[in-house]
Design brief:
5 domains, Rossmann fold, seven-stranded mixed β-sheet, Calcium-transporting ATPase, cytoplasmic transduction domain A, 734 residues, six-stranded antiparallel β-sheet, Alpha-Beta Plaits, alpha+beta
Length: 734
């Protein structure tokens, strides 16, 4: 068996991708096919003895689409301004159309030339022209409905297409009668139904597709983590080249503030490197000769030369990109209630309409009367309420989520969140803040805390060391101005010195004390802070230790309460981190997590998620770094906090915009209520069909009960209004 990913052109909606996927899976020689609408590709596992790429391309063509060959690059189409303007224009046209078609019902003024009573022919032709415009607008729906019918996979598009075309053709027939002089036929025009059904379907797809390109953008941003250019050393001279020109074995130069260009090994110099996007470790790592560097990591403070080892597709970033692409092509078995029901409902309605039409002809009814019954059945079974049942509830639920600081990017999430039984948390940046912060201060002086930190922060501002940022951030957050620093100096590997307010300050680790012959009488306090996972900063003023400051990555607010609540709801919680085991255990113990996986790489994180899913667990992954992207994409639901990187936020299905982990609980609660509302909506949608279909077929005529397409349309409207009213309860109940 061989696996290939083909780029597909021509897919515009889920009906397209689902239809293509079903068609491919029916073909002999294809073991499994998975079509991804967002990535516009098809992942196909096939028997290379029976098939080749040419035959696969032919299958795609027969299904009504075009294969662009093997998937190599990511293309983003996006929602451009032209498309947006087009949608706005059709919104305006829909409003005008409904005004013309139904304004007379509430005595709204209209032009005589298109007035239904004064000029029925002008009125009819006007509606006909509008209907033609909307049919052109919704031609893709009609085309997809036809394709799915041809491939014996009828869906909602098929029913929409048949309903729209039947109503349109019947309305043309009525228009012909009106032109011939039969003015009574004006009550049998359904051009407005044609237009509005198409408009609302397009509206749903437009809103649903606004976040369609996010996955592509996320993957492109992964690639952009690495710089476009690199500085290599040739014959002792520096030369700037594009990243594609770097070859294995080249000596690449990195200076303070620059990103590492390719994966390699340091051959000269040392520097603190921020690799948090890969390892999840919040503290920059000090690396020297012989140690590995990863493309995309940031050089904080040193000059290094490193030998290029992995370039292009072999790089760590490229491996992560590959994992994300593969994860996005792996589909979770999400049950679509409306799709399942419609798979039976659609063919039954079509069959009933055709059979009834034939029976009426056999019984001696004329063609016109038989056609009226045929159209009545299709109109009364029009899937407007069925189409609204799920997406409308989802839209309201997404609004509720947004009000609670939860940004849901895929509608499926609100169907699946209530099924979650396992939540995997990344540590750094998710359960913790992900940046070094001042966690504890032992002040041995009479100096007020903020003034003490003002002294330290003023000197640290001149330093390039990562720990210095914890102090400068504190000053910024508390709006504390820095003081003038004189005689600043760097004591390599130990700390920094300077004069503030004419007093000599020494700031650094315990080693700096020995350099200045200062007795350390606070070793016990140092050990206490270190056991809590802190980096220790000594503050010396005029050769006297005045403070010990612990700098650490502290636990996020509400993390403990969230874990406790999840445990109460019998949802398993697991910590998954690239950090060391000791730090992970300390954090886990503090917040109540008992299951820990430490020292894991990005690919290993993804594997853990896969293992949990293989145990039939419904898994939610909550993370924030690029290293979490593959795991976020692999999980049933990926959640990222707002302070996470853009990559994680784009790879995730849900973003917690208020950085509050308690929002996860709210998401699950809203999901449960949403599913309840959706099921009720589906009931009401089908209640009208079950009630009205026998009447539309004429089975109750002996009792004097019968309807025509107009009443059928009214029933459809009432069905839709019932669904809307029921859905609004979701908002009231919150």
């Amino acid at each position: 068996m061989k696996k290939i990913i083909l780029s597909i052109e021509g897919m515009t909606c889920s009906a397209c991708s689902n239809g293509l996927e079903k068609y491919l899976n029916k073909q002999e020689g294809i073991k499994q096919a998975s079509v991804n609408l967002v990535m516009a590709n098809a992942s196909i596992e096939y028997d290379e003895k029976k098939l080749d790429i040419e035959k696969l391309n032919e299958f795609v063509k027969k299904a009504g689409f075009k294969s662009l060959g093997e998937f190599k690059e990511i293309k983003i189409e996006g929602k451009n301004k032209k498309e947006k303007n087009k949608f706005i224009i059709f919104t305006i046209l829909a409003i005008i159309f409904m005004y013309i078609a139904m304004g007379h019902m509430i005595n709204l003024p209209t032009l005589n030339i298109i007035d239904m009573e004064q000029n029925p022919i002008g009125y009819t032709i006007c509606l006909f022209i509008f209907a033609i415009v909307f049919i052109i607008y919704g031609f893709d729906i009609i085309r997809n409905g036809y394709k799915n019918l041809i491939h014996k996979t009828p869906n909602m598009d098929t029913l929409v297409s048949i309903g729209v075309l039947s109503s349109f053709l019947y309305s043309i027939y009525s228009m012909f009668l009106i032109i011939k002089g039969d003015i009574s036929a004006i009550h049998n025009l359904y051009f407005e139904s044609v237009a509005m059904v198409i408009y609302f379907v397009k509206l749903g797809r437009y809103l649903d597709g606004m976040s369609k390109d996010k996955t592509k953008e996320a993957i492109q941003k992964l690639v952009k983590i690495t710089p476009e250019k690199a500085t290599i050393k040739i014959d002792g001279k520096e030369k700037t080249v594009t990243i594609d020109e770097v070859k294995k074995g080249n000596i690449v130069i990195s200076k303070p503030g620059e990103r590492i260009s390719v994966d390699g090994k340091i051959v000269e110099g040392k520097a603190h490197l921020d690799e948090s996007f890969i390892t999840g470790e919040s503290k920059p790592v000090n690396k020297g000769i012989g140690e590995k560097v990863i493309a995309g990591s940031i050089n904080y403070d040193g000059y290094i030369e490193y030998e290029a080892e992995k370039i292009g597709k072999e790089s760590t970033i490229s491996e992560i990109v590959k994992l994300v692409v593969e994860a996005s092509n792996t589909k979770a078995p999400i049950a679509k209630i409306a799709d399942k029901v419609s798979s039976y409902f659609v063919p039954i309605v079509i069959l009933l309409a055709i059979i009834t039409f034939i029976i009426y002809l056999i019984l001696g009814y004329n063609f016109a009367d038989s056609l009226i019954v045929f159209v009545t059945i299709l109109v009364v079974a029009c899937p407007c309420s069925l189409g609204l049942a799920t997406p409308l509830a989802i839209v309201v639920a997404e609004g509720l989520c947004a009000n609670n600081g939860i940004l849901v990017k895929k509608s499926e999430i609100l169907e699946n969140a209530q099924k979650i039984d396992t939540i995997v948390f990344d540590k750094t940046g998710t359960l913790t803040y992900g940046t070094l912060k001042i966690s504890e201060i032992k002040n041995y002086s009479n100096i007020e805390t903020n003034k003490l930190l003002q002294l330290v922060g003023s000197i640290e501002k001149k330093s390039t060391h990562p720990i210095g940022k914890a102090f400068t951030d504190y000053l910024k957050e508390n709006k504390i101005e820095t003081l003038e620093v004189k005689e600043f100096g760097n004591v390599s590997g130990y700390g920094i010195i300077g004069k503030v307010n004419n007093q000599k300050m020494i700031i650094g680790n315990a080693k700096i004390l020995k350099s200045f012959n200062i007795e350390n009488i606070y070793e016990k306090d140092e050990k206490e802070l270190a056991e809590k996972g802190n980096s220790i900063i000594y503050v010396v003023q005029e050769n006297k230790i005045i403070a010990l400051i612990g700098v650490n990555d502290i636990i996020r607010k509400n993390a403990k309460e969230t874990i406790e609540e999840l445990n109460k709801n019998k949802i398993d919680t697991i910590m998954l981190t690239g950090d060391n085991k000791e730090t992970a255990q300390k954090i886990a113990q503090d917040i109540g997590i008992t299951k820990i996986r430490a020292n894991v790489l990005p690919s290993e994180k993804t594997q853990v998620i896969k293992e949990l899913k293989a145990e039939n667990k419904k898994v939610m992954m909550c993370g924030d770094g690029i290293n979490d992207s593959p795991a976020l994409a692999t999980a049933d639901i990926g959640v990222s906090i707002k302070s996470g990187t853009d990559i994680a936020m784009d790879s995730a299905d849900v973003i917690l915009t208020q950085n509050n982990l308690e929002s996860i609980l709210k998401l699950i609660k809203i999901s449960k209520k949403t599913i309840k509302i959706i099921k009720q909506n589906l009931f009401w949608a089908f209640f009208y069909n079950v009630l009205m279909l026998p009447i539309a077929m004429g089975l109750l005529k002996p009792l004097g009960i019968a309807i025509n397409p107009m009443i059928a349309s009214l029933a459809m409207v009432i069905s839709s209004l019932t669904v809307i009213a029921n859905t609004l309860r979701l908002k009231v109940e919150q």
